[in-house]
Design goal:
Elements: E1 2-3, H1 12-26, E2 31-35, H2 41-53, E3 58-62, H3 83-93, E4 97-102, H4 113-126, E5 130-135, H5 139-151, E6 158-162, H6 168-178, H7 184-192, H8 197-217, E7 224-225, H9 231-244
Parallel strand pairs: 1-2, 2-3, 3-4, 4-5, 5-6, 6-7
């Protein structure tokens, strides 16, 4: 399980507390998200020290989104500008397993897909042990991205990020924010059910199950579910996949 990190580190203490509880009380491997937003290098080190003292072993190193009310990314004075720099900081002085983000449909601020992959290769070379993709709804995008990443020299595991759809408006907002495409057929089926929340949920679980089954059957190293703190849909997908033994 992974636990998100609020803009500007606003949930730092809660993130560490929850990851520690997941690990200690439930025996599940857990990972803390960690961003550069609103922190100096000294403050980043303080948080990393806290994580290490709490027994956390896995960190998802992210640049992070701008704080609420701020449209453009701005480096904090005395802080870091790129996720690669955060990876370098962690890898140099801490024993964490380091995860990184990647973007099948290209990062929204990248000049081109080729440039995006160049930066990704640099980030992996800096110390990333595995990658998790941004959400996507067409598996062909994932397969194409993995092929291009391998050609660019990125050889770490690339875990697909899948979001079981539970609300039409929510998924459309998420997709718009990260510039992820929603296939026309999927959008049509969602809008056909938009007045019936239970129908949307049922269809979302079915779609995610089929999506995950194909990914696992094709050799994906696992699935990173984007639950948005709503676990029932994800639990339903996982239960179906365990019965199907798609891997």
């Amino acid at each position: 399980m992974s636990v998100t990190y609020g803009a500007g580190g606003t949930t730092r203490g809660k993130t560490i507390e929850i990851v520690k509880r997941i690990k200690d009380e439930y025996g599940l491997e857990a990972m803390a998200h960690f961003t550069c937003v609103g922190a100096t290098v000294a403050e980043l080190r303080t948080t990393l020290d806290e994580m290490q003292e709490a027994g956390i072993e896995n960190v998802l190193a992210l640049r992070g989104d701008p704080p609420a009310g701020q449209e453009d990314w701005r480096k904090t004075e005395g802080g870091l500008e790129y996720s690669r720099e955060l990876v370098e900081l962690i890898a140099a002085d801490y024993p964490f397993a380091i995860g990184g983000a990647c973007f099948p449909e290209t990062h929204i601020h990248a000049v081109s897909p080729e440039e995006d992959l160049e930066h990704l290769a640099e980030k992996v070379a800096a110390g990333v042990d595995f990658l998790i993709t941004q959400l996507f709804f067409d598996n062909a995008l994932y397969h194409d991205f993995v092929e291009r990443a391998r050609a660019a020299g990125v050889n770490v595991p690339i875990i697909p990020g899948v979001m079981p759809i539970t609300q039409v408006g929510q998924v459309e907002r998420m997709a718009m924010l990260c510039k992820a495409s929603i296939p026309d057929g999927l959008r049509k089926e969602l809008h056909a059910r938009s007045e019936d929340s239970e129908a949307v949920l049922d269809f979302g679980v079915a779609y995610a199950t089929l999506q995950c089954q194909e990914l696992l059957s094709a050799g994906a190293p696992g699935i990173h579910f984007i639950t948005l703190n709503r676990s029932p849909a994800t639990r339903a997908v996982v239960s179906a996949l365990r019965l199907a033994k798609a891997w």
